[in-house]
Amino acid sequence: MNALFESLAFNEAGLIPAIAQQHDTGEVLMLAWMNRASIEETLATGQVCYFSRSRSKLWRKGETSGQVQKLVELRIDCDGDSLLLLVEQTGVACHTGRRSCFFRALRDGEVVTIADPETTPEALYGKNLTTDS
Amino acid sequence: MNALFESLAFNEAGLIPAIAQQHDTGEVLMLAWMNRASIEETLATGQVCYFSRSRSKLWRKGETSGQVQKLVELRIDCDGDSLLLLVEQTGVACHTGRRSCFFRALRDGEVVTIADPETTPEALYGKNLTTDS
Q1: What is the pLDDT of residue A131?
Q2: A interface test, pick of B11, B65, B77 with most A CB neighbours within 10 Å
Q3: Between chains, do B31 and A94 touch, taking CB under 8 Å as contact?
Q4: Measured between alpha carbons, how far is A30 from A12 in angstroms, rounded to an integer?
Q5: Scanning every residue of chain A, which has its alpha carbon at the shortest distance from the alpha carbon of B7?
Q6: Which of A12, B3, B33, B57 ranks highest by number of CB atoms within 10 Å?
Q7: CA–CA distance from A66 to each of A61, A103, A108, A132, B66 (Å)?
C-alpha cells in the first residue's frame, strides 16, 4: 500500500483523476476523482469508491443505485498523476441510465447522443434523484 | 463548434481532462489536459493537441517524437467535464517508449511494471529529452 502512495502525485486538492474501464470489453465508462481515503477504501473492499467533488465526501459508486464497480486492477500512469481502474461494472455507469458517461460525440460540428439509456434514473434512484450514481 | 463549447465545463484553470483511447483496440493510452485553444487546434488539424500544464503551452502530441495521435472522434461525458478522444496512435503514446502510459499496476500490494518499452526515449527525442512526448 505504501508503495502505491509513494508512486502517486495528488493535485493541490488531494485528488487524482481515475478512469474506469470495463476490464473485458475495453469500454471507457467514466472519469471521476479519488483521494487517498477513497483509494484505501477501494482496495480494502474491492468495490470502487470515488471522492465526490460536488458533495465533498466519499462516493461509494452504486451505493444508492446498486450499479457498483468491482475493482479488477488498479493501474498508474508514468507520471503517477492519473489512475486507470479496470472494473466489472454492474449495470450502467452513468446516472442517466446509460452504460457509459461518454454518450455524446462531436459529429459534423454537432454534439449528438450516440447511446440510449438502458434504464431510467427513477429506476436507479427512486425518488432520491442525485447526480452521483 | 459552438455547440461543443456550450457543452463543456472547463475547470478554474480553463482546462478539461482528456482520455486518449486507441479507437479500434480500446486500449487506454494516456490522460492529459486540454484548453479551448488546444481543442480548436485538434479539430482544425485532426491531430491531437493538448495543453501542457508543466510548460503552460500548447502541446502538439508527437511534434518532437513523431508519435502523433490522429483524432477519430471526440466524445463528451454526461457532465461535460471530461473528454474521451478516440485516436489512431502512431507508435507509442508514452514518453518512456511504451505504448500506453498506464504501464504500472498494483498487484499483491506492490507496484509492478506490466509493459516493456517498444522504443527508447533517445530514439524518440534524440538529445532533446523532455517529459512531454
Answers
A1: 54
A2: B77
A3: no
A4: 22
A5: A111
A6: B33
A7: 8, 21, 37, 12, 45
Q: How far apart are CA B1 and CA A123, in angstroms?
A: 35
Instruction: Report the pLDDT averaged over residues B61-77.
Output: 96
Amino acid at residue number A18 = A
Nearest CA in chain B to A100: B77
Share in percent of chain A as helix, strand, coil (round to 5):
15, 35, 50
Q: Which residues of A touch B74 (CB under 8 A)?
A: 105-106
Look at the block and give the residue holding cell 492519473: A82
Under 8 Å between Cβ of B50 and B33:
yes
Angle at A100 between CA A95 and CA A103, to 5 degrees: 95
Beta-carbon contacts of A56 under 8 Å, excluding residues fewer than 6 positions away, are none
pLDDT digits (tens, 9 = 90+) for B4-17: 999 999 999 999 99
For residues A77 and B86, what is the distance between their CA atoms, to the nearest angstrom?
A: 18
When scoring A110, A111, A114, A130 by the number of chain B Cβ atoms within 10 A, the one with the most, hence best to mutate, is: A111
Predicted confidence (pLDDT) per residue in A67-122, tens digit = 999 999 999 999 999 999 999 999 999 999 999 999 999 999 999 999 999 999 89
Q: Is the pLDDT of residue A17 over 70?
A: yes
Q: How far apart are CA A101 and CA A16, in angstroms?
A: 19
Q: Is residue B55 helix, strand or coil? A: coil
